């Protein structure tokens, strides 16, 4: 879980509050101490009864201005609501004004157990970060792209006349119609020259269903490179005035030469334009030159690499696309299309099994990209997306086309089926709606049930998947904008016996080595993403994918180079970073470690079963090695350069 702590903005909040006028800031007559300002006595933090991602904050103190420090920034309101779309741990700090100055209590931590992606409906979320499960990289603008009224990385804007038209408007709002720079310096040798290393910098925003709002910062400067990974909070409670705050050592990206120009580059930074291709943020100049807005200009990496995606007629804010409900052309035919040995034909029956790797999902309409997108992304096991119950292995849905119409049968109930307007409507024999439960996922914090009498078909392809869902949320226009879906696969038609998947092994490339150079750690190495494969690996690592409950099995034998001590009882084991994730000597205590047969030329069989609950892959993320326990048990022949002089033969590697 993520802990959103906000100590870093307390000092700034105190300055903000102390600068308020007497009309806005009431200094209480009572002197408070930190111990007085505790939750339940001085204030309350209450989840909304209908939407636990909305948190109600209420001050209980009288005669003094409350001083809140929240995930959405500071506030002096007596009551306020927090909208927190992502599950995680958050904290608020409550303070009060006193004659001695602001006093704060200890932070109060609370949990939000579920995600609420309906809170991300404002297109700024998708424009900034690409959508849930995605990210968007932004780079400094280094030339005139015809957008943002800029031709370089930074502009200047009057804080007393943000529209630069003599209206003296100071209210800075998002949208190019609401502000204008008073100077666009472009590329200047004395400011930010064309060869400035700053142009190699970038900032990436992501919306991760598990990690939440993520930030990756990479700033290149003459003094060196700064890399930081953290989180951000986007406050859109006022859609016309969105602000963003940075945590974990990240900040609003800017040139090194401006480090001392603006004192605040982390808290409540104003976003004044945000489209899928243009991002502009404003920071206030605070040095001796006096207050002035600095506008930092960024272009998305996609648009930088392909400027043709930028609209030419309206380079302003892209309007989010209206919800387009899924539409499967000729659904009735596609439902009953079957594939055998690569050949498809239309039958009168279709059988579906639940996808045991990704059994369910929430699919939401991303107005920024005008597409239906997945939320879970295979990340099951969290409090908001629990692992599906084991009963999914027994579920089978049979749909049939008969002379009397369409029928359905799920092994528990059966009846008539209607296929209308992209939907499947389940009924009993008399035509009355029947609610069916496709699957249940039970966790410690919540239970997810995919059930209903009417399902919208989101995808239907015999070669890939079948997805159907029930409405989860609607937008302010009443249109369904997210579905809770069941992911199913067409049941294969048996065409003959099948066996395990064989992974070919090139024995000439199997690496026999001492782990970490330690002669007590004899290993056979098949793949290591962190190096050692200059001559090529003995296996095609892209072929090694273990689905849930599948087993990787390797048979091998040692031909020479090991002399076992009398009475030795060594073990051998598959070592990896995904399942066991243990190395010498702990790896030999793993449940899948087995006895090594010390008889000359004996065949050794080692295996590991994927019990993680999801598909495991190895490319780029995990080693695959076999450990042979030799420490204190054997003499291993070595070459002059200290490498093991051992010969082995890999007999087989299979997935079954």
Overview features:
4 domains; single chain; mainly beta; globular; disordered N terminus; 8-stranded antiparallel β-barrel; 656 residues; 8-stranded antiparallel barrel; Immunoglobulin-like; 4 helices
Roughly what percent helix? under 10%
Give the number of DSSP strands.
45
The strands making up the biggest β-sheet line up spatially as 10-12-13-14-15-16-17-18
Residues in β-strands, percent: 35-45%
How many helical elements?
4
Number of structural domains: 4
What is the overall silhouette?
globular
Signal peptide: 1-19
Keywords: Signal
Structure in words:
The relative contact order is 0.08. With 656 residues, the protein is mainly beta. It folds into four domains: 114 residues, Immunoglobulin-like, CATH 2.60.40; 189 residues; 160 residues; 155 residues. Strands 10-12-13-14-15-16-17-18 form an eight-stranded antiparallel β-barrel.
Topology:
Elements: E1 3-4, H1 10-18, E2 43-47, E3 54-59, E4 66-70, E5 73-75, E6 79-83, E7 88-96, E8 103-104, E9 108-112, H2 123-129, E10 134-140, E11 154-157, E12 202-208, E13 212-221, E14 224-235, E15 243-247, E16 269-274, E17 278-284, E18 293-300, H3 301-305, H4 331-335, E19 337-340, E20 343-346, E21 349-354, E22 360-366, E23 371-374, E24 396-402, E25 405-409, E26 414-420, E27 423-426, E28 436-442, E29 447-452, E30 454-460, E31 466-474, E32 480-490, E33 501-502, E34 511-514, E35 522-527, E36 545-546, E37 551-560, E38 562-564, E39 571-576, E40 594-595, E41 604-609, E42 616-617, E43 624-628, E44 634-636, E45 647-655
Parallel strand pairs: 1-7
Antiparallel strand pairs: 2-3, 3-6, 4-5, 4-7, 7-8, 7-9, 10-12, 10-18, 11-18, 12-13, 13-14, 14-15, 15-16, 16-17, 17-18, 19-20, 21-24, 21-32, 22-23, 22-32, 24-25, 25-26, 26-27, 27-30, 28-29, 30-31, 31-32, 33-45, 34-35, 35-43, 36-42, 37-41, 37-45, 38-44, 39-40, 39-43
Signal peptide: 1-19
Keywords: Signal
